[in-house]
Amino acid sequence: MEKTTNSAALCGYLAQKPEFSHENHGRRFDRFLLEIPRLSGACDVLPVLAAEDVLDVPLGGGAIQITGQVRSFNSHALTGRKLILSVFADRIAITDEPPKNEIALIGTICKPPILRRTPLGREICDLMLCVVRQYHRTDYIPCIAWGRTAQELGALPAGSLIELKGRMQSRDYRKVLPDGSAEMRVAYEVSALSASPAETEEKDCIFDRAW
Fold it and tell me: Is residue 211 part of a domain?
C-alpha cells in the first residue's frame, strides 16, 4: 500500500460555525474554525475547509473528528501575495474521543532552512515543505522545529526529501503595515515533533511557484 504524503487527523470543538467559501465544479464548500486544546492549556484554532456533503452531520457542542490533508492556497490580494493554509476535510464525524492534532507529511524542502535561536538560547528551524498531491498540484506548508530536530533540519540543503510528523498550530503575531501602523494577525504552521529522510521518492515539486 502506498504511503500517503499528506494526512491530518484532528479532534476538537467547533469555534466558528461553517460559512460558505466557494463552489468548484458544482460542489459547494464551507469554511469553519476548529478549536483543539493543547496539554499546556492553550488552544490551537485551525481553519477547516469541507464540502457541504461532507459537512452533512449535526455539529453541536460535542467533539468533532476530522480526517483530511493540509492544503495551501496562494492568494494574490491587493496587499500582496499571501499563503493561505487550511485543513481540507474528507471525513467529519461526531465523537467522544479526546483532543487530537496529528499531521504527517512527506515532501521536499523547497528553500534553505533558517536556523535561529530564541533570546533564551533555544534553537528553532523554519522551513517550507513542498508536498505534491494528485493532478500535479502542490501544497507549500510552513513548518517549524525545535531543539535537536531543528539542528538536524537546519543542516539539510534545499531539495532534501523528508518525512515529518507533528501538529498544526495557530500563532498570533504583530504585522507592521506600510503606513507604520500595526495589526494583529494569525499564522498557521506545522510544528514538527520528528523528521527523517523519506523512504519514498517525491516528484514534480515546483520550487518557485510560491515565491
Answer: no
Q: Single out the residue in 80, 101, 122 at which a domain terminates.
A: 101
pTM of this prediction? 0.88
Digit-coded pLDDT (tens) for 78-106: 555 788 999 999 999 999 999 999 999 99
Q: Which amino acid is at 57?
A: V
Place of cell 536556523: 115
pLDDT single digits (tens) 99-155: 999 999 999 999 999 999 988 889 999 999 999 988 778 999 999 999 999 999 999
55 and 75 inside one domain: yes
Give the residue carrying C-alpha cell 498540484: 137
CB 112 within 8 A of CB 158: yes
Measured at the alpha carbon of residue 32, what is the angle toward residues 30 and 37, in degrees to the nearest 5? Answer: 150
Give all strands (DSSP E) within the chain, no chain letters: 6-24, 27-37, 43-51, 63-77, 80-95, 100-109, 114-117, 123-133, 137-146, 161-176, 182-197
DSSP per-residue codes, 75-99: EEETTEEEEEEEEEEEEEEEE-PPP
